[in-house]
Amino acid sequence: MTLHPFLQRLRDLELVRPIGFVRKVAHGHFEATGPACTVGDLCEVAGEGAAVRVEVAAVDEAGLILVPLEQNRQVRPGARVTALPGGGSAAVGDGFAGRAIDAFGRPFDGGGAIAVEARTALAGSVPRPLDRAAPRRMVKTGLRAIDGLLTLGEGQRVGIFAAAGVGKTSLLEQLAGQIECDRVVLCLVGERGREVEAIWRTLSARADAERFTLVAATSDETAALRARAANVALCLAEHWRDRGQHVLLVVDSVTRLAMALREIGLAAGEPPTVRAYTPNVFAALPRLVERCGATGGGGAITAVMTVLSETDDVDDPIVEVMKSLLDGHIVLSRTLAERGHFPAIDVSRSISRQAARLMERQHASAARTAVTQLGVYDEARVMIESGVYKDGANAEIDQAIAMRAKLMAFLRQGQSENSGFADTLSGLRTAAGSGGHA
């Protein structure tokens, strides 16, 4: 029997809401006696003057460990804790296209309220292995260094590994603006507020601004909010992929996301490992990558994720883990940046694991020639630039020296320059030699 709508609404009312109480306030987290929750649920703690939203980071027999999603507003022991419904979900829908939102899905672009079509689990769902599709179509970035030598495909997950001040942000803006796709979801984790404003001002001024959605949690916000931003961005990207669209997801940066997760893990009592990173970090990063990619339904999430890499330190666990998880990595060189060579992509140290399947034979041959000659020059750089090397001593080095000027000119490109693929391929063949032999 169908209940009268009024009776159904009455039945759905929460007449009794379980509560708990804060028993300890520490830096970066609270400990509470309840209510009954699971990890990832949201609660509200009654502070002095205003309530504070918190996320459940750990549950044990003593109660809950809560990490704040907002700045601590004078929470004291004994404060009431109430569970919030729907905390483990994110709002999605076409209303988010062309908008800038925070980690709760609230707009901060002054554009008014957003119409929510549905809510989806914040943790998302990783496509099963046999539901995935290998990249079949090339992603044309308009950048000669990438399209020519590091070709990417739809649904590929690639990392940009860079130190500060080598043109990472400019490269991301160029990729986001030039890659042909249905949607672009740009997630900024732990960035400065000034950079968020500058990027949004650039994107919102474009003629195709409706393609872009910005999700941001700045460096001054809590660790839980910074971590939540990445999941909200993924939920939006998954929503559009499941409708057959090609989505470009840009996450800047995975390193700051890992730092936020480490802060949460330490607050939850997890043991620190290499560089004090906690186990929850190494559980979250594979899921971040695996939620992206192409599916058999025709949709795809092409992911570009930045990783801060100041040196070649092999002990940096985030750099090593991300290189093992991603389908390719693009390394930016400080040496090239200091010489005014942009984009400062070090093609000898970069790789696209999908390039071989996407390139045609002549393209692949010319690319191999270019990468080989650049590598030979780099190995002999000290001898060449110090004057120790004498012409004619080694045929390979002589050839690398002869080709270097053309190759470097081919790879150098202005930020506003969008190179068509046919022009890129023609330029590569010219720079690598007319035959493009390996």
Automatic annotation (TrEMBL):
Gene Ontology CC: one annotated term: cytoplasm
Any coiled-coil regions, as ranges: none
MF-aspect GO terms: ATP binding; ATP hydrolysis activity; protein-exporting ATPase activity; proton-transporting ATP synthase activity, rotational mechanism
GO BP annotation list: protein secretion by the type III secretion system
Any Pfam family matching the protein: T3SS_ATPase_C
SUPFAM superfamilies the record matches: P-loop containing nucleoside triphosphate hydrolases
Catalytic activity entry: ATP + H2O + cellular proteinSide 1 = ADP + phosphate + cellular proteinSide 2
Localization (cell): Cytoplasm
Keyword Cytoplasm carried by entry: yes
Keywords: ATP-binding, Cytoplasm, Nucleotide-binding, Protein transport, Translocase, Transport
InterPro entries documented for this protein: AAA+_ATPase, ATPase_a/bsu_AS, ATPase_alpha/beta_chains, ATPase_F1/V1/A1_a/bsu_nucl-bd, ATPase_T3SS_FliI/YscN, P-loop_NTPase, T3SS_ATPase_C
Keyword Transport: yes
UniProt xrefs under Gene3D superfamilies: 3.40.50.12240
Segments forming domain AAA+ ATPase: 154-336
Protein name: Flagellum-specific ATP synthase
Organism field: Sphingomonas leidyi
